[in-house]
Write a structure and sequence with these properties.
Number of domains: 1
Radius of gyration: 15 Å
Strand content: 35-45%
Largest sheet: 8 strands, antiparallel
Structural class: alpha+beta
Strand order of the largest sheet: 2-3-4-5-6-7-1-8
Mean pLDDT: 95
Order of helices and strands: EHEEEEEEHE
Shape: globular
CATH class: Alpha Beta
Distance between the termini: 19 Å
Length: about 160
């Protein structure tokens, strides 16, 4: 199984507590997901994540085909990090680490994602032609949506992998 890695860092001019409050609310996910994906939370979720929390979503990640995605919050260390993992959904593996660090002038939000695909020997081709480009588009939308909401300099952000 080929495991791929995404690594993004976004700098926002807000306090770490404000960043945590926003990111730890499952109801804010649709705000940072491209509208074309028609992302919706379909299970009852609390206003704030906690370790062991399960959430069920419906979205259309590619070609308008609806899929359900179940995630579990596997680790929480408020306000420094949380981890969500897919239990079922469009990926064979999805492990997303969210880190929050105070920096001069605000907070650094770091996303580290490990993922694998269901397509066996075709997974490298499918990733190269479709999935990696779609994930880059999703994270670029997210980055811009965060800056529209909180401000800051887009040039300070980085994609590390």
């Amino acid at each position: 199984m080929k495991v791929y890695k995404l690594h993004y860092v976004t700098r926002l001019p807000i306090r770490i507590t404000e960043a945590w409050e926003f990111f730890s609310s499952p109801g804010n996910l649709p705000l940072i997901t491209p509208p074309s994906m028609r992302f919706e939370v379909i299970s009852e979720v609390p206003p704030k994540i906690y370790g062991g929390m399960v959430a069920l979503y419906r979205l259309r990640p590619m070609f308008g085909i609806p899929v359900q995605w179940m995630t579990v919050i596997t680790n929480v260390d408020e306000p420094r990090l949380f981890v969500d993992e897919q239990r079922f959904g469009p990926y064979k593996l999805w492990h997303h680490e969210h880190f929050f660090r105070e920096v001069q002038g605000g907070v650094e939000v770091e996303d580290l994602v490990y993922y694998a695909l269901h397509f066996g020997v075709l997974s490298r081709l499918v990733n190269r032609l479709l999935v990696s480009k779609e994930l880059a588009r999703v994270f670029e939308f997210r980055r811009k949506a965060l800056h529209d909401r909180f401000g800051g300099d887009l040039r300070a952000d980085k994609r590390l992998t």
